[in-house]
Write a structure and sequence with these properties.
The chain is an alpha+beta fold and about 500 residues long. About 35% of the residues lie in helices and about 15% in strands. It is built from 17 helices and 17 strands. The strands form 5 sheets. Strands 3-2-1-6-13-14 form a 6-stranded mixed sheet, with no helix packed on it. The protein has a 5-stranded antiparallel sheet with strand order 8-7-17-16-15.
């Protein structure tokens, strides 16, 4: 064999070897990615051959179909329908052949397409019998009456509402405003889908953003619950007294912290921790922050889940933050929920639910169980403790009781009277967080009811309430309406 032929043969051998390796890499390593790639028309068409599973909110006669599949005559056999439109958009998400999936449509895609491991035996039987594979149904924890109350409360505002059952973690309502109709994104006309998507993207604020889960806000005075918890866990009692200055002078700086109305909280007389919570006294809680120091405040915040990533049934929840590297002035400001402290409405509801649940954190969940077309439960999501650093207890039972009593008095006679419900004892805390100069505050209310037997914990945040708004004046009545809807319907 001549040297030239030998070189050509060797080159061909190398090329065939590279081709062999590449084909095996595609077949073995990249197969799942290629199969699920939204640009893969074959995989896309195959997925649309399946009647995607439904999503149902509520039980029995009160149940609502919030996502379903409708057969079409087009190349894509089934189209997604959202009968409730924008009401459940930030729970269901969207299913689009152009933009993929969002929210539960994304995280529960395997169940909705009938391809989850739990359905393996059934799918083998269907394959052998030549039957069409069906998607599985998500039974949601959302209560329709409570969800509609949350959506109605937010109408015309930018903000979010999250309501949780304290003892089980079931999310009873989750709403973000403004919202959108996911049905427009489910169209099989690509031009229509892109137009709808672009219109949403041009709106300000963006309706696609799930503000309940993926946006953090300065919590204002609602954060005093964490500061008070840290104090109580450190040996302070509700009767411990503090000075009542008009302004709290901060060390290392000429800055100071004032109260909401610019005056004192107790006519300049010593004020107890309990009294300070009821009237939301900034100078008291700023002093508590200085007394405790940043380490204790951070440790308590992290026991409530701040500074932690954790899994949720909706994708990518934002991390709520309590900064760890703070000087004394920043520590005092953080203790009243200002500076760089940020929380999601979901996190604030979890904190409040833990206080209502005797100090125990419970994993929130939006899906109660998954069932097949025969009604057989494939996967049941039972209540589970939510642990951070190996511990699900955020505060002791004694501390939780003290916080509950203070929150109850805050609604009965303090800043939270707007959340009162006739015949029901409500516990809660208001918050009015100052933002950029010239911008309206971010207003909050978080609370639970009934105070003695908590069934629902609710957090409301509004980011465009007007220049002189307060949490007590704006957010508390909205939370009242949501709690009342659940108590009347639940």
């Amino acid at each position: 064999m001549s040297p030239q032929i030998r070189k050509v043969a060797l080159g061909l051998f190398v090329l065939f070897g590279v081709l062999f390796l590449n084909l095996n890499f595609i077949a073995v390593v990249q197969s799942d990615d290629l199969r699920t790639d939204e640009r893969n028309a074959r995989g896309l068409i195959a997925e649309y051959e399946i009647a995607r599973g439904a999503m149902v909110a509520g039980d029995g006669g009160d149940s609502r179909l919030v996502a379903a599949s409708e057969e079409t005559d087009g190349q894509l056999r089934y189209r997604r329908q959202y009968p409730e439109g924008a009401t459940y958009a930030h729970v269901t998400g969207y299913h689009s052949f152009v933009y993929g999936r969002g929210e539960l449509e994304a995280t529960f895609n395997d169940f909705l397409t009938g391809s989850a491991p739990e359905a393996f035996a059934r799918n083998i039987a269907d394959l052998l019998a030549g039957r069409q594979r069906d998607g599985d149904t998500l039974q949601l924890t959302i209560d329709p009456a409570t969800q509609h109350a949350a959506v109605d409360a937010l109408e015309g505002s930018t903000g979010a509402v999250v309501a949780i059952a304290p003892d089980t973690g079931e999310v009873l309502a989750l709403a973000s405003s403004p919202s959108y109709d996911p049905g427009r994104l489910a169209s099989h006309d690509g031009d229509e889908v892109r137009q709808a998507w672009n219109e949403l993207g041009e709106r300000d604020p963006d309706p696609r953003l799930n503000r309940a889960v993926r946006e953090t806000y300065p919590p204002g005075s609602t954060y005093k619950l964490i500061t008070a918890a840290a104090a109580l866990e450190s040996g302070v009692t509700p009767e411990t007294t503090y000075a009542d200055p008009q302004r709290l002078e901060l060390p290392l700086t000429t800055a100071s912290i004032g109260n909401f109305d610019g005056g004192t909280c107790n006519q300049g007389q010593p004020i107890t921790l309990a009294e300070a919570m009821v009237v939301s006294c900034n100078t008291t809680f700023g002093q508590i922050g200085l007394d405790l120091g940043v380490d204790r405040l951070v440790r308590q915040a992290e026991r409530f889940g701040l500074n932690h990533e954790w899994d949720f049934q909706l994708p990518s929840p934002a991390v709520s933050v309590m900064p760890e590297d703070l000087d004394e002035p920043s520590t005092a400001q953080s203790a009243i929920g200002q500076r760089d402290v940020r929380v999601t409405p979901l996190a604030m509801s979890m904190i409040t639910a833990a206080i209502a649940n005797d100090g125990e954190m419970v994993t929130p969940r939006v899906v109660r169980h998954v069932e097949d077309v025969t009604g057989r439960v494939l996967r049941d999501f039972e209540p589970e403790p939510l642990e951070f650093d190996g511990e699900s207890r955020a505060v002791s039972s004694r501390t939780a009781t003290a916080l509950r009593d203070m929150m109850e008095e805050a609604v009965a006679s303090g800043t939270g009277t707007g959340a009162q419900i006739e015949g029901v004892d409500v516990a809660g805390k208001t918050g009015t967080a100052q933002t950029a100069e010239g911008q309206p505050p971010t207003v909050w209310f978080t609370g639970f009811a009934p105070a003695g037997d908590p069934q629902i914990a609710v957090s409301v945040v509004i980011t465009d309430p007007g220049p002189d708004a307060t949490g007590g004046g704006v957010a508390a009545p909205l939370a009242r309406d949501v709690m009342r809807a659940w108590l009347q319907d639940g």
